[in-house]
Amino acid sequence: MGVGKSTVGELLAGRLGVPYRDTDDDIVAAAGRTIAEIFVDDGEAAFRAIEKRAVRTALAEHTGVLALGGGAILDADTRALLSGHRVVYLSMDVEEAVRRTGLNAARPLLAVNPRRQWRELMEARRHLYEEVASAVVATDGRTPEEVSQAALDALELKEV
To answer: CB-hemisphere CA count at 13 Å for 112?
Structure first.
């Protein structure tokens, strides 16, 4: 959350000359509600089911840069689908997360004691991110342009 996946994803897509897509945007468009509203109204399990379908559809349809929500990798089927793709895990530490997002309550999984919850989420997810990642790119103290270049370098991709 707040790692810059949308910004970096758009930059990467532009540099590679391919389309950009974000499954969070797909979910919001299909549901007609924000992700926070889905969490509150329907619960996390319902959101994760919607997210799983959105990721599966996007992976089948989309040929460019695809950004996934931070919890998408919680599903084993989604992780298996990602195994055939180049995946970049954008990492950051809690201090950078605080600086970028303020760890505000608009993020449903961080509504109470955001620092602790962010750390707990990362402890639970980091190994899953690393499991699916073709490359890990640290974003701390870097501009989106620097992160996108590091991702290109890590994946050994060339700009168009």
So the answer is: 0
Report how far Cα 125 is from the mean position of its chain's Cα atoms. Answer: 12
In single-letter form, the type of residue at position 127 comes to: H
Dihedral angle, C-alpha 56, 59, 61, 66, nearest 10 °: 120
pTM listed for this prediction: 0.84
pLDDT in tens, 100-112: 555 454 555 555 5
Pairing status of strand 88-91 against strand 20-22: unpaired
Beta bridge partners of 89: 136
In terms of Cβ atoms closer than 10 Å to its own Cβ (0-12, 13-18, 19+), residue 151 is: buried
